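Lab notes, practical 5.
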Amino acid sequence: MFGYRVPAPDEAMLISGGRAARNGAPFRVVTGHGAFILPVFRKVRFLTLAMCEAEVSETCVTKQGIALNVRSVIAFKVGNDAESIINAGQRFLSDQDQMSTLTGRIFAGHLRSIIGSMTVEEIVTERQKLAIEVLDGSKAEMAKIGLTVDSLQIQSIDDMNTGYIDAMAAPHTAAIQRQAQIAQAQATQAAAEAQQESQRNQAEYARKTAVVQAEYKAEVDRAQAEAGQAGPLSQAQAQREVIAAQTELAVREAELRQQQLVAEVVRPAEADAQRVRILAQAEAERMKVQAEAAASYDRVALDRMLIDQLPQIVREAASGLSGANVNILNGADGLGEIAAGLVGQGLTILDAVKKNLTASAEEAPTPERGLSVKRGSNQADA
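Output from the prediction step:
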């Protein structure tokens, strides 16, 4: 829009004209936003808020009277608050490059003042202390002109070829050189030891390599010898395997033939033999039963025959006694006793005959021995 102005992020817009600002400043400060400017009645100027740099190279005299050339760099800018902008605007708005020149002069004065109260040793060894003292000494003066210092760096300190700093550094340099020489000697010794160790390692490596090569050659020779024997050995091994396979096949065929023989000959023969045994046992049992029956029948017939003949035996015994001269002492009783004795003798004879017949029957051949008994004949035929 015509008449509307906006400052850059690193600028402050100063509007002059019209009524005075509340803080009594001759212009109004605008930062971070825009403002409408009436043409002809208002005037706008811009003040940079960016970082600026000033270099200082100043000859200073120390507390010891030794001249030093000190070079430093100061980083500064206009403060962000309205008061710092107003102070800087009133001083540098028409020529903003003067900020670096004035800042350098301010710091040069403070640098000379502070270095004059220090020795060369303090300045060289305590540069940070020097920078802090210079910043503290210039802070109030810089604030009056609306500037703030961000940093101060002492870049170099030169004694302008007087040799003081070199002489001051000589003991340290000598100590450092001595330490460097010691370190160099130690490094040389370590290098020599490392070289010797390397030579020993190389010799050991060569020895081990020779041993390995010899072992490798022996292994190769052995492998070649084994390879030369591999053909006959393989053939012999193959023949052994063929023989083993043939043997196993023959064994299996024999087992199979045996199983077939058992199934075709032995088992039928065993079955036939078992059948014959069973039939023979049955026939033997039948013949035994028949023989026992026949024997029992014969004994019964014999007993009956003996019983039937017993009276005849007694009569024969009595008739044998009829011509004998027997004296009977007790009359009828004695005669009875004689008769009873004859009967007892007959019974005894009968028992003896039966026992003899029984013994003869037991000793006679049985049906298991291939003999047969014929009923009614009382004789055993072989």
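Observations recorded by the TA: The chain has six helices and ten strands. The domain at 54-80+96-162 is CATH 3.30.479.30 (Tetrahydropterin Synthase; Chain A).
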